[in-house]
Design brief:
single chain, alpha+beta, Beta-Lactamase, five-stranded antiparallel sheet, 8 strands, rod-shaped
Length: 572
């Protein structure tokens, strides 16, 4: 029996699972990109601030005294010209960190690591933007910009005030990184997430198609066995490997084997019953023929009948009654055959219901797999949150280290400078600022921990769904057991009907024997009924017609038995 080709159920479920993984990976990549961008920018901000503060601290304490500018436009500290020395130091730091540094006097760049776009030298003598001048040079506050254009290129930039010992703002310190470098770092991290997602999708797809190939092969074996049974072949042999499986396919295989065995047993009993029915109908036909011959002999001896008319009439009536009993027995056989057929129909319906229930069981098993995939996704999200916590913890440690360094420097210089140590109030202020930044990092860590807890809660919910699916699967198994019990009941009904047919045939045989005895009595009485020849002759003709009807009914019963044998012969 050919069926229209289409995607298998298991393959469809595999494709759905792969699609779900693809969608989840896409969502996670989008979320990761947003989180990575935010986290990366925060780290850049911290890096620039620390670098800027470190540069200002280093340059301010190398020489005592205030900042000034020589007539030649070179930077001076405490009466010493530090232009070249500080330039070399800033270049060395630039090589180590990759950051750009600038020292402003007023609003003008005096020392910088930034090269001009045409390569003709350093970008000195240029001015800061109005926003930077207003906030840092005039307002005395730090300035952070994520798109500060310097030399026609966008920068992540951080500015802090440069002060003399009396607290007067005389310039600014700058630390910056090209925005395109930041974007490249974010893009690299996103690309790593994308590659990881693709690898996961490929692994899931390969495993899914492998699983589809294995399970589909087993399902096709079961389908072939059932198709073989539907074609009437009772020599079906279920694969031993399938019978030994401990999963739902093993249950289907064992149920198929039980079904084949039960149908084979029923067909065998029906064959025996039909053969008995055919033999009994032939005996009935032969008996009716013999009775008809006896009636002919009675007609030939009508001349000798003279006595026993009343007894003869009673005997004939008894024969009629027995004939009616034979007819009722035949009707009972017909009814029993109808019951047997109905039971067979119900048996087929029960088997179909069992198959539907088992198919539902397979679907619910796939739900369990889907729930497990969801748990894996949530665990991946939890791991990402843990990684973010690690990065922010590193930022806090870095800030703490700088805080300790500044505190140590402030203590040493305060002890060395004596009264002049009051200028180190700037260092104390920076220590306070770093402490604030540490608190901000701790707050961010707390936010990530909250998200981590939320992901864990979602994983618990998924486990609840998994538990519900398992319960539903058990209910489906119970339904399957009930259907198989119903099929067994129907089979018992067929067997009972076969037994009933045998009883009816036995009754028919007894009635036939009684009829033969009556005919013998009738023959004896006919010899004495010579006086009532004509009346007896008419009665014998009626009796002969009755025997012909019995013979015809016996032939019909024989045909019915033959049809039953032909139908059962479909199974071989």
């Amino acid at each position: 029996m050919k069926q229209k080709k289409s995607l298998g159920l298991i393959l469809k479920l595999v494709l759905i699972a792969v699609g779900a993984v693809c969608f989840t990976a896409l969502v996670m990549i989008l979320i990761s990109r947003s989180q990575l961008s935010s986290t990366y920018e925060s780290l850049i901000e911290e890096e620039l601030k620390v670098a800027c503060v470190e540069l200002e601290s280093k340059l301010s304490f190398e020489y005592d005294g205030d900042w000034a500018l020589t007539p030649d436009g070179e930077m001076e500290k405490g009466g010493y010209v530090v232009q070249t020395e500080y330039m070399n130091e800033m270049d060395d730091i630039h090589k180590k960190t990759g950051l750009e540094y600038t020292l402003f006097y007023g609003d003008t760049r005096i020392i910088t690591t930034i090269e001009k776009s045409d390569g003709s030298g350093r970008l000195v003598g240029t001015k800061a933007t109005d926003a930077v001048i207003a906030q840092t040079l005039k307002g005395g506050q730090d300035y952070l910009g994520t798109n500060v254009v310097i030399n026609n290129r966008p920068y992540f930039a951080y500015y802090i005030p440069l002060k003399n010992s009396d607290g007067t703002i005389v310039g600014m310190c700058f630390a910056g990184r090209l925005a395109e470098d930041v974007s490249a770092g974010i893009a690299k991290a996103v690309m790593m997430c994308l590659v990881s997602g693709i690898v996961i999708i490929v692994l899931v797809a390969v495993f899914g198609f492998f699983l589809n190939r294995v399970l589909s092969a087993q399902m096709h074996k079961v389908a072939d066995n059932l198709e073989q049974l539907a074609d009437g072949d009772l020599s079906v042999e279920v694969d031993e490997k399938l019978l030994n499986r401990g999963d739902e396919l093993g249950i289907i295989g064992n149920s198929t084997k039980v079904l084949v065995d039960k149908i084979s047993d029923i067909i065998g009993k029906l064959k025996n019953a039909s053969e008995d029915l055919s033999a009994n109908s032939e005996n009935l036909s032969a008996s009716a023929g013999q009775a008809n011959d006896a009636a002919g002999q009675v007609a030939a001896a009508m001349d000798d009948i003279s006595k026993g008319a009343v007894s003869q009439a009673d005997s004939i009536q008894t024969a009629v009654n027995n004939t009616e009993s034979i007819g009722k027995s035949i009707e009972g056989i017909s009814d029993s055959v109808g019951v047997m057929n109905n039971a067979s129909v119900e048996m087929k319906e029960s088997c179909k219901t069992a198959m539907d229930t088992l198919n539902n069981l397979i679907k619910h098993s796939e739900k369990v797999a889907t729930s497990v995939d969801s748990i894996a996704t949530k665990i991946g999200s939890t791991n990402e949150s843990a990684n973010a916590i690690s990065e922010l913890t590193d930022a806090i440690n870095s800030i703490a280290s700088q805080t300790n360094l500044l505190s140590l420097n402030a203590s040493i210089e305060a002890a060395r400078a004596g009264e002049a140590g009051k200028g180190f109030a700037v260092v104390a202020s920076e220590i306070s600022t770093l402490a604030d930044q540490s608190k901000q990092s701790a707050d961010k860590i707390n936010e990530i921990v909250v998200r981590l807890i939320k992901d864990a809660s979602e994983s618990v919910e998924v486990m609840k769904v998994l538990s519900e699916n398992v319960v539903e699967q058990k209910q489906q198994l119970s339904a399957t057991q009930e259907d198989m019990d119903k099929m067994q009941t129907n089979i018992n009904g067929v067997a009972a009907s076969a037994d009933d047919i045998a009883d009816k045939i036995s009754n028919l045989r007894s009635d036939n024997e009684g009829l033969g005895q009556i005919i013998e009595d009738l023959s004896a009485i006919s010899e004495e009924n010579a006086a009532s020849t004509e009346e007896t002759n008419a009665s014998v003709e009626e009796l002969s017609a009755t025997f012909q009807m019995i013979n015809d009914d016996a032939d019909g019963l024989n045909n019915l038995a033959q049809n039953m044998q032909d139908t059962i012969a479909y199974f071989h």
